[in-house]
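Practice problem: predict the structure.
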Amino acid sequence: MAYIFVNMEFKNPYFFLLLLVLIPYIVWYVLKFKKSLPSLKVPDTTKYTNTPKSFRLYLMHLPFLLRCVLIFLVVCILARPQSKHSWSNTDVEGIDIMLAVDVSTSMLAQDFKPNRVEALKEIAKKFIDKRPNDNIGLSMFAGEAYTQCPLTADHAVLMNLYNSVDCNMAARGIIDDGTAIGDGIMNAILRLKDSEAKSKVIILLTDGVNNSGNISPLTAAEIAKKYGIRIYTIGIGRNGMAPYPLPTGGTAMLPVEIDEETMTKISTETGGQYFRAQENSELDAVYQDIDKLERTKFSVKQFSRRNELFEPFALAALIVFLLEIILRTIVLKRMP
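Answer:
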């Protein structure tokens, strides 16, 4: 409770000028009370010295005090108490990670439910949830590559941007279809190369063979090695055949082709590891391996938003109001 009041400020502090009405109200009450006192002239008051006093005598001025407190609380509510906007810098330990995700039309294959690209979102969410202190970014590629989200510690924003991703851009021709693995890696490298983190990682997720783009996957791997970036490659898709949706409706069984040899070379060249994921649970090995990487400290700037804090004042005002009514109408009720 003390913390709340220390971190409180008022949106409309000029309403506190209304408290000035308490001054004439107090003066009026004192004068009114003096005039209302009954008087009786007696020659000697000694015999009244030990007369017991009723408890109502001690409570006589309490309703007035409660009304003053009620006025103060109402003014506080009108002044709109709020928590303060605040920025804070905290040092946390983590690594810089870029997720390079294949969004070519082949990712619509339904060997994962409902399809590969949607299943990957759940995999990514699980991965991101396990890395709360890491800077994570998102690079997408089909026949060409683009950055969906730069490195960020705001994982809620990252997942919102990831959830908006589908394969329709390639299907509608907004970007070239295909599988440009080398371009996908290179785009992620450009986001990581200037990072000061001791550990920099690319998680490459694809279901195919490099068949387009301007740079070969192995050349991109050499560049990643030069910048001290490890690449963990993950082949998505089950062995054999996989059902693909047809534009006219229905599905067709097509072969699953993953260039596991190239994927293994990419990871080996950069000090990473290749994984084959046929189910979401198989990515646990990736999490365990990344957890062993050396962590580095970086600064995160956190923002706390204003919140309205009138509720405690409103509750206190209600209690004071009810107490004043009970005292005035029941406990201290005067007979006419």
